[in-house]
Each structure stands twice: as structure tokens, then as C-alpha cells.
Amino acid sequence: MAGARNIQAETGPMLAADGRPLKDSLNRALRRQKLRALLLISPLLLFIMLTFVAPIADMLFRSVENQIVQETIPRTVKALEGWDPSTGAPHDEATFAALYTDLVIAEEYKAHTRLGTRLNYEFGGASSLFRGTGREVGKWPTEVYTEQFVASDPAYRDGAAWALWMADPSVRAVLPLTADAYDAWALMTVVEKDDVPAEEQPLDFVYTALYRDLAAGALPQLMPAVDVDNWDSVAIRDLFLEEDAAWGELPVWQAMKSYGGNYTAGYFLNAVDMQIGANGPEMRAEDERVYVTLFIRTMILSITITATCILLGYPVAWLMANLPARSANLLMILVLLPFWTSLLVRTSAWKVLLQQQGVINDTLVWLGLVDDANRLVLINNEAGTIIAMTHILLPFMILPLYSVMKTIPPSYLRAAKSLGATNWTAFWRVYFPQSVPGIGAGSILVFILAIGYYITPELVGGNKGVFISNRIAYHIGTSLNWGLAAALGTILLVIVLVLYWVYDRVVGIDNVKLGG
Amino acid sequence: MGQTTADAAYVAFERVQKSYDGVSLVVKDLNLSMPKGEFLTMLGPSGSGKTTCLMMLAGFETATHGEIKLAGKNINNIPPHKRGIGMVFQNYALFPHMTVAENLSFPLEVRKIGKSEREDKVRHALDMVQMGAFGGRRPSQLSGGQQQRVALARALVFQPELVLMDEPLGALDKQLREKMQFEITHLAHDLGITTVYVTHDQTEALTMSDRVAVFNDGRIQQLAPPDQLYEAPENSFVAQFIGENNRLMGTVKEIGGGICVVRLDSGDEIDAKPVNVSKVGERTQVSIRPERVEINKTRLRDGAHTLKAEVLEFIFMGDIFRTRLRVAGSDDFVIKTRNAPDQVRLQPGTQIEIGWLPGDCRALDAP
Predict the structure, then answer these.
(1) How far apart are CA B285 and CA B203, in angstroms?
(2) What confidence category does residue B8 fall into, taking pLDDT thresholds of 50, 70 and 90?
(3) Phi, psi for residue B336 in degrees, rounded to 5
(4) Last residue of a domain, one of B188, B219, B236
């Protein structure tokens, strides 16, 4: 055992002069340094967190956030829990009664139109359905219940009596629907009307709830006895169907059930042209599919733009790296020149150049290369996007290429030639492989910039040349479907990250050089 | 080296001139011929035109005027890759994205040599420079000396008859450099390849070469075997550039019989061997090697001229002593003496007399 202890002592942690473990001493010594480094970056870190990370996180969260249905029509969502969409639209009065209560309350809060807008993303017509029904729901003849209760006993008109009843736990236990409706009404009265509930007579939907409770069981002793057996009643389901036949059909119910949760995959499904059908997620109808095509087009155009940037940028970068400093600087200025003009101006200039009656077509016709009747369509399609974006992104390819090429000594080419390689072999086997890190860096830059580009495709892309980002902008600015925009943005982000990962696996991110 | 007339001029520069800007000549009227198998060094300060000459021979620069011949054929218009000349670069220029073996295989691949033969030759070349175990490594994983060996093996693997080396040892430390000098010379002689070696390090030039061409100002100042270059420099530039030299300025007073008397500017007179002077009254720079200065009068010829000197500084350098003297008005006259048991260590302030054999003191042109 003594031997073992010796070994332990020898292989144990190194100790500093004061007997503490060396590692701890070192950490302590470095702590000040680390703290200072942290302090130096903290303003920027804070700025980035506030203006970049937090908004992005919020935006990404919106792609799954879905509280509006749950908040606006909680009773209906609860009632639909047990419903199976494959059996068709619900028939039971209880579900419609729940929706009735929800809608009356939502209408008071003016929340039903927002719900309609939200559900409209999932199926068309939801917006007008909710707006129309919401407008009418307060005028439905449910006052028959109020009148009959009041006729049975005037106490039912008295707000103070109601307040007393509803404060009693035994009453609440026997009349769950009534208690729930009364609470919602009381809250609404305080919040929306700034009144005291104990001084007001409840609205019709509270009486309706009471009637439905009584139909199911006995009235508590505290409340005046009524006999509801031969009372007039209204069928709420019929009222809904009368208002709009869509209430008798599946989609609205399905939407309300599917999106009843606090979180939803709906936006993401929508972003890949899918929807929640009766049997789970399914593809949308052929003519409603937009986004997959757009994603594919965005990818293909971005790859094409990257490729043309490599083809056009490589020779320029090579020339710059091999010219004497004076000429190289001049070329560099020419390469950087576009950065000094506004992006918008450059893109607009392309509009002038590319249109059918534009400079390029005129020149080609004048040269006789193109027939006047068959002028090239260079704008408002993919060609326009590719041409304009290649021009705009070219510096991002040339600069990293140049900085990598600058570090490749000319002696490599000479060595290759002295070893017997022709100019081409020397270039292809010796120079090119060493410039690949530059191509990699340039490609990543150009591709990632291209895939999220917005202004240029918007201006010169027409219908066929727009990118997914244009669609995202549309949902942010025009359709106000931020959830879908967030889902599209999230998918774009994931695609970029996945490509980055693939690139790292194939080329190796260590091979990417932006300089030196 | 047995030279026949046929290969007496395996490599030849004939009246070669080179200008980069059309205003000044970097290489002025270069004439040089090398027999097969020779190890020739181009030595000179930077900007003297030696590297330009090498690049013209390799084909990376074209001569503005004149002919460059290889094995009797004019190669002025042959592109570098068809010249079949092996070359070792200053920074080795090993392809960083290839392994050592791939680097060596490259010249064989472009020559369309079969795989098995390629592997044989690569292995053989690597063994030749004792790098057989490093074939799978990348150049960046090798030390400077190892990279140097690989670069050498790569230049030799396709068996060129002419190998050019452009300051190949410049980046190595002193000890390794001396070792590699030795190895390169042996390899070149063993394989019988003709070598043109460029350096600005005179020790390297002296120890390695069969002949050394001293370049200055675009011209070859002297082309001679190392000993001759050292012992018998033909002009003051060579005398100054090769080894250490004491210089004294003066005028020829008497001349004749392979010996001349020079009257130094200080008024003293000394014996010298006339090299670049022919008549009395001519200005001259006399040059004498520090180790040829004699402080023991008994060893001097009778009647030899001697100079008074004052010891300024004594430096112990291990195998030799280096003593700085004030002689004939010059404060940087240096003598070197061997560290032998009987050698005196001259203390600063001592007055001594120095002299030399007339053959060791050369009267050269006045720069």
C-alpha cells in the first residue's frame, strides 16, 4: 500500500510553490486577464445580444408560437379535445355552446377578427367566417333564457344576487358552465366597461350557460327555484349553421382543433407546402404549393451565382496577385468601386441595361447579333437575377481569392515547370489546389449572401427570379403572417447551417482563408 | 575531372545580356562555359546578376541578347518544362498540398512514367537523401533540413543531367548548413551531375565548388577554382569579397621581376606582387590576408620591408587569435594567428613590427 501511495503522490496534480495545485494557481493568475478581455468585448456583446441575438431568437420562436387560438376560444378548444376529425364536423350542442360563449366574449374584446386572420393562414374563408359570425352572435335570440329566468324570479335580474351566488363554492361546483361564463363576464365588465359586476345584470350567454347547467342537473338551494322543463329554448348549432354553412363543415373545426395547442408545427408545414389534414400532415393541393419551388429555386440560383462568381473572379484575382503592386492596386480599386455606390443604384442601373429596349439589347441589335423582333429577355426572370447578383457579389469572391493567392509564392509554379510540368499541369496540379481555400472562403461568402438576398431579386427578378427571402419579406410586411415568415426564415437558416456543416466535412473549414 | 573537348562546354553562356526595364543591364556581356560534371558556384552580392543568370538558364527569364547553350544546343526558346533541368529553390518550393512521396512523384507523373517504376525511383531518391521513412509526411511536418533534403531529392528524382540550386541552404542554421554543404557536394559528384549553385555565402562557395564565378555589377569578376580565388584574386573586388583582407592604398614605386615596391599613402614602403599594375606611378590597392601577416621577423626574407604597428585589440576566438592593429594610418588592419602553445598573446598598446612574403601581398587595381 505504501508503494501505491508513492505512485499516487508522483502522478498527482503538479503543485505550485505555495502548495496549491498548479492548475488552480494558473487559473487564478489568468482570471484578471480573462476578466479584462470580457470587459473589453462587453459593449459589443451587449449590443449584439440586444439587437441581433434576441430579435432573432424571438423571431424563431414565433415560428412555433400559437397561443391565439387557445387564448381566444379556450372553451371550444377544450370541448374539441375528445373529438375525432375523421368522424366529420362536430354535431353536439355542447361544442357549439362553448364556441358561442367564446365568440361572444371574443367579440366584446374584439379578438375574434385576429383569430379569424390567424386561422385564415390555414384555410381560406376563416377570416370572413369569424368576422361575420362574430358580428351577429350578440344578436342571437338567446335572450329567451334571460327572459324566462327573470320571469320565474326577479332575483335573477339582480347583479348583487348573482355576485353572492357565484361566490359560493357549492354553487360553483354544481354549475360549472355558469360559473365559468359568469367569471368571464365579470372580468369583461371590469376590464372593458369599467363597471362593477355586482351592480349589473349578466349578459344572455351567462343565462344560456345556466340553462344548460340546469338541463344537466339540479339547481342549488341558494338560488330561487325554477322549472325549466317546458321552457322555450334555442338550438345554438342551428343558429351557427344559419349564420354560415361553413360551421357545419370540417375545415374550420379541424383548424381550431389542430391549432388549439400553445405550440404548432403548422407554420413549418405550411413553409414546406404541407398542411394538417384529417389524417395528419399531408401535401397541399398542387396549385397551392409555392415554397418548396421557391427554396429549390433559391438554392439553384445561389449556386449558379456562386459558380459564375468563381469563373469571373478567379482570373481577376490571379492577375491581381501576380501584377506589380501599382497595377494591382489600381485593379483593386476597380474591384472595390461597386462598394462605393449604393446597392439600389447599381441594381437600378441593371434595369436600364437589361430591359428589352435597354442598352445591351440595343447594342446587340445594332451589331446584328440579335434580331430586332427577338430581343433577349434579360430582366424580370432568372437571367436578370443571376446577372445583377453576380455583379454585386463578385467582390466578395475576388477579395478572399486574392488574399489567398497573394500568399502562394510564384516559386511553386516555377518549381512545377522546372520539374517538367506544362503551364496547364503546373496550374492545375500545383497552383489550383493551393487556391482552393480562397475559392472555399469566397463561395461560402457569396453563397450565404446570395441565399438570403432580397433587394436585387425583388427589383430585377420579376416572378421567376424571386428568392425565398422576397416571400419572407412579403409575409413580414404585407400578409403579416409573421409565424410563417419566421418558419421560412428558420428553414433558410437551417439549410445554411447544414450546408456549412457539409462544407466543413468535405472541404474542411480550416481550409478557408480570408487572408494571410 | 577528365574533361574531353566535346563536353568542355556542356553549359555555355555566350555574350548574354539581360535587362528588365530597357534602361539598365542586370547582366552585362556574360560569357561562361562549363564542362559536364562540374560543380560551379555563382557567388556575388545581392543584385549582382547571379540569380538572373540562373533563371535564364532555367528558362524563367529570357536573355535580352546572346545565346545560352545546353549540350551544344541553343535553348533560348525552349520553355522551362522541356529543358529537363532539375532545380532546388531558395525556399524549397515543396508543394504543401502533397506528401513528400507525391512531391517526388510529380516530375515522374508529368513524364508519364508507370506507377511501379515511379515508386521505385521515389524510394530510391528518398533513400539517397536518408529520407526513406518520411514519404507519407507533408512538407509542413518536416524540419528545415529535412525539407531541404526532400527538395534535393525532388530535383534529382527524374535524373536530370544539370541541376540548378538557388541559395538552397540560406534558411538553415549554421551547423546544418555545413552538414548539407558536404552532402550536396558528395551527391553531386557521386551522381556525376553538372551543378550550378547560386549563393552569396563565400564559405559555401569555397567549400563546395570545383570552380567559382564571382559576380559583381552584372559581370563575372573572376572564374577560378576556390584556392586560386582565395590565394590569387585578380582584382580588388574579388580580394575584398572572398575571405577577409587588409587593404592599404598606395602608389607603385618600383616594379620588375615579379615584385614591386609600393609606397603607401602613409609614406611607408612595402613589397608586393604586381597583379593589376604594370607601371611605376600607378595607384594601387595592396591586399594581404590576415593569416599571412608575419609578426616573427626571423621568418621574413632578408631585407624585406616591415611596418610598424600598434596593437589596438586582442580577440580570443578559440582556434585562432584575432588582433587588430594600427598600421600605416589604418585602424582596421587585422591579423590572425593560430592558437599554438608558443604563440604570444599581443596585449593592446604593444608596439610590434609586421611583414610578409612578397607573394602574399598583392598589388591590385585601385577601386
Answers:
(1) 24
(2) low
(3) -120, 135
(4) B236
> How far away is chain B from the Cα of A437, in angstroms, using its nearest Cα?
11
**Domain extents in chain A:** 2-62, 72-139+237-264, 143-233, 291-511
Q: Which residue has the cell 371590469?
A: A190
Residues B108 and B111: their CA atoms lie apart, in Å, by 5
A104-114 burial, b at 16+ Cβ within 10 Å, e below that, comes to bbbbbeebbbb
Domain identity same for B198 and B109: yes
**What is the C-alpha separation between A351 and A357, in angstroms, rounded?**
10
DSSP A151: H
Cβ–Cβ under 8 Å, residues B34 and B40: yes
Query: B286 lies in a domain?
Result: yes
Residue-wise pLDDT tens digits, B334-357: 998 888 888 888 888 888 888 888
Give the domain CATH number at B282. Answer: 2.40.50.100
Residues B11 and B128 reside in one and the same domain: yes
d(CA B364, CA A142): 130
Question: What is the Cα–Cα distance from A28 to A512, expressed in whole angstroms?
Answer: 35
Kindly list the residues from chain A whose CB atom is less than 8 angstroms away from the CB atom of residue B83: 418
The DSSP string of A338-362 is GGGS-HHHHHHHHHHHHSTTSHHHH
Q: Is the dihedral of CA A306, A311, A312, A314 positive or negative?
A: positive
ipTM: 0.81
Dmax (CA) of chain B: 76
B285 and B311 share one domain: yes
Q: What phi and psi, each to the nearest 5 degrees, are found at residue B3?
A: -105, 130
Looking at chain A, which residue has its C-alpha nearest residue B90? A411
Residues B46 and B183 in one domain: yes
Q: Measuring CA to CA, how many Å separate A401 from each of A309, A315, B307? A: 11, 10, 68
Single-letter code of the amino acid located at B249: M
Is residue B170 within 8 angstroms of chain A, CB to CB?
no
Contact check, Cβ <8 Å, B95/A412: yes
Nearest Cα neighbor of B358 from B273, B299, B274 is B273
Measure the CA–CA gap between B235 and B261, rounded to whole angstroms: 18
Q: What CATH homologous superfamily does A291-511 map to?
A: MetI-like (1.10.3720.10)
Residue B164 CA to residue B60 CA, distance in Å, equals 12
Enumerate the β-bridge partners of residue B321.
B316, B337
What is the distance between the terminal CA atoms of chain B, rounded to a whole angstrom? 36
> How many alpha carbons fall within 13 Å on the CB side of residue A225?
2
The pLDDT tens digits of the residues spanning A293-328 come to 999 999 999 999 999 999 999 999 999 999 988 999
The share of chain A scoring above pLDDT 90, in percent, equals 22
Q: B84 vs A420: CB contact, 8 Å cut-off?
A: yes
